[in-house]
Amino acid sequence: MTTLHTGSAPPIASTADGLATVSVRGLSHWYGTGTMRRQVLQGIDLEIHPGEVVLLTGPSGCGKTTLLTLVGALRQVMEGSVRVLGCELNGSSRQERQLLRRSVGMIFQGHNLLRCLTAEQNVQMGADLLPGLGYRARRDLSREWLRAVGLSDHLSKLPHDLSGGQKQRVAIARALAAHPRLLLADEPTAALDSRTGREVVELLQRLARDEGCGVLMVTHDPRILDVADRLVRMEDGRLWAEEAVVG
Amino acid sequence: MSLWQGRRIPLAWLLLTRQPMRLAVALAGITFAGILMFMQLGFRDALFDSSVTVHKLFDTDLVLLSPRSKSSISMTGFPERRLVQAKADPDVTGITPVHWNLLLWRNPQTKGTRSILALGFEPGDPLFLDPAVTALAPRLTQKGRVLFDDLSRDEFGPVAKWFREGRVVESEVAGKRLRVAGLFSSGPSFGADGNLLTSRETLLSLVPNNPPGSIELGLIRLRPGADPAQVVDRLRRLLPEDVTVLTKQGFLDLEMDYWRTSTAIGFIFTLGAAMGFVVGCVIVYQILYSDVSDHLPEYATLMAMGYSLLTLLGVVAREGLLLAIFGYVPAYLAGQVLYGVIHAATKLPVSMATDRATTVFLMILVMCMGSAAMAMRKLGDADPADIF
User: Touching check for A142 and chain B: CB below 8 Å?
Assistant: First the structure.
């Protein structure tokens, strides 16, 4: 995969100094206002290191997705500190968050591919975020990522001609094509059967390790827990237990 | 990096073209609006242009009119000696008196009568721009001979057709028998459905009540290099109040202003064009708005990936631009064809003028970009935090 590193460095590359990819301290979050105000996160502390795969589990509605959107710079931080790739998100501007998101790959429960684009073009929407790369270089990069996820025969297919597993793999290729330093995945196997789900997660784990990219994955799926370097369990807005997994 | 190397996935183009039905509806709507605007503005301009077809015949720099002459259908006389007085100005090289009357022409086939514009002049005077007309003028020296406008409306009878077949075409005007001695081309206007040229002598015999020494139009030619505006100023000071001095353009403007202000034509056709514009706006807005709504999760995904809102607004703007360009081209071509059809049917001077083609393009552009701007507000609903 070394050929994939030919692009110039992404805008935020400060994690090379050995700092954690994600460092969350005392994070709390609320939804609603007035009497409807409800706390969803209470004093969260979490660290993710480069190349580390962290799985976040817990019952529905416990705040997992909220944590993911906060770490992914999709939401304004209310209380506590969230440092992602060396950038403090508490008090960040809209534009700072938008630029940070370019270095954060996201894989969604649904695949969220653009319906009007082919698999190759979808992946290139990710590669297009890389600065300083010519069109041909970005296209080749996209093709290479599609090959890495095993879809080199489906370059010019539209999403609705692909199976669920194939779509999710395109989404992974798209996320990785932007050369992220952190990958966030929200139940990436939810729409897949167990065998395909397993394949997709293993692929994700392998590629993230090769790229030295931290991974935070929310999942309910007990069959994929063993891909994690670390399991984190969340209940009622608190992180309860952390356990090391022999990977 | 070259532009070609810097290019991105053409998202706007793909969003439009991957939904061919929606694109077809949008383009049909824009094309329809464009054709409507072309037609309405074309009619308006043609009607105003046609009001001065006769005025444009004259080879003149300045004209003298009676102050009471407000349009080609209400020309009143003024003393011919004013025209002679104007000759005193050093810059004036030639003067030509012209009679201008509306007379009743009897259709030689159906015997019905219809109002026709008759111009009377000395057959030897050089007053026409078109040398073909000047060449025919000597045929008018014989009394009772006229030149007939072959673009006159058909209601005057098959005069031009008969004349070309070599027949002797005679008709009756104001009770006097006249013979057609030749054909010229000018065209109908607001005021007159047809035109004829004749000598002063013939014309005066048709309007015996005309006060002696009175003419309706005086043509003044200036020496080359003279400034018409200065001569107009001097003549206005020189001549008494019973005569108006205008440049040739002023003469044309007087006529067009009359029809513009005293009739509802300008308003009606401009309103028609505005309706085309509004209809187009509604269609394009609907298309772009539903396009943005349908793709909202995808736009939100792009924002989550790190694309800025500005980039996404640019996508919608480019969709608007593409729609404008691809909707305009068929409207332009259809406009060309329809102008040809209308010209053949009505003989109105309607054609694809560059300024109108530009105006309609700009209106379509404003229509599409304005609708795109309205549809963009929907993009504000794309919250990347919602897609998890």
Answer: no
